[in-house]
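FAQ: What does a multi-protein file look like?

Like this. Sequence, then tokens, then the next protein.
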Amino acid sequence: MLEGNKEMYERILVPLDGSKLAEAALPYAEELAGMLNLEVVLLGVCEPAQREFSHMYQLYIEQIAELVKQHVGEYYKKEGAEAKVKPIITFGEPAEEIISYSGKNDISLVVATTHARSGIRGWVMGSVANRLLREMRAPVVIIRSMAPQPEVGTRGLLSKFWFRWMAPRLARHLFRGWRDWL
């Protein structure tokens, strides 16, 4: 049934923010990409306040891309093709950047997750998922955080990277500054 839809979809975009929640969209995108021989675009958006940490974000997106390429590649072994995964970093407000990138780069489908906030809390805090649903021209698949989530080997990669690499360096820097102050 899905075989006839290859022309309809060429590129899947998965927005990632470094959270386990965002990474929960990966198995769905991997399966679709593998079944339909699609390119997966992993889009990380650094907000202006995070610009100085963009190199860490780039490393995170590249590591996730390698893992996704391996997972999608399992589907392609049967066909002898190679998985196509593209890591991208942009700067700005997440919803605007996702919508803009999708429009400029012929994204066929967006697979994202949501916290599933509702009522005043969802309205006041805003929601990237809500904006994507309202403003995207391409179809959007939203994975709710309350749904049972498949196992993902990449969950929490950014937090692991932070605690193993960045936190000790920051602690040394802060301690050095504190010691000099005394």
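And here is the next protein:
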Amino acid sequence: MFQIRREHVDALSERVYRDFEDRLVEHLTRTNPERVAKMEESEVRAAIKAGVEKAATYQIFLQTNVAGFVQLQFEEGNDFDVDSAHPWAKPVLTDPELDESQKIGYLRDYVEAQRSGPGEEDEARAIAPAEEEPEDEVAEDAQETYAEADDGNAGPDG
């Protein structure tokens, strides 16, 4: 009978991590060439490892989300999550009602909204973890959406 020993699992895990790290090094080199150019490859890999570990403290484990977290570190600073210049980061990362994909999505949206500049009220409202809208506002939004989709028809029978 074939048995998988712990060392086999560990070797596989190391291989999966190394492949992930290799892909992330390539990605960061393309997306953040100025920062990566100032670093030795071993420093990039160490930054990735630190980012992976920090992401885990916020319950972020999926490779795509971990990569997003590390990308944010390269763009906004290694400690963007606690930096007073980014007061929006910590509440999103520690919100127990958000899953890890939502956390990364909100963080990316906040960064994009900041880059867009002031006056992006609708976008900022759309990306913020929202309070529930009062019933009448939800109903009005639904009616407007239905009216737009209806294109003047009286109802489903036409």
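Q: Is there any per-entry metadata?
A: Some entries carry free-text notes. For the entry above: Residues 6-130 form one domain.
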